Fold:
Amino acid sequence: MRHRLRAASAVLGTLLLAGCGTSTVPGSAYHGVVVNALSSKAAAAPSSASSAASAGRAVLSVRRTSLGYVLANGSGFTIYWFARDHRDSARSACTGRCLQAWFPVTGRPVAAKGVTLDAVLGTITRPSGLVQATYDGYPLYTFASDTAPGQVNGNGSVWHVIREKAPASSAAASSW
Structure:
């Protein structure tokens, strides 16, 4: 039963991933940008409600994954950017059915005390009134098919992880 559920989840995730993108591979919007952040009080599961950080904040972390170090939420779930979003636009290109698989990282993005960020963190306000975190002007998302911290199932042609350098301290990055 568990194997069938996992297989169905993988197929659904692939279909949702394909439905939100094109086959073009854009250049990275984050060339040379380094973010070092620590963990937070974000919720434990990557659902639309769990992307919301406590007290209107989205605390960022760095997580070691199979792709190397990437930006993650405080619970260790990988954060992605969408190639169809335009830098410094007040709007997100992920709407409608796209939001069933890609959850906006909500709240004002912040780093833990003592962390230096080389990226510009900000927010946009979605038409629903939800405040979504941005990184260097791009809205941030988590992926429904990432069911555990450190997974990178959403990385592909139009959805991308935000790669990070290894933190100076092993305590600064999670590898749960």
About this structure: Helices lie at 2-19. The CA atoms of residues 122 and 134 lie 5 Å apart.
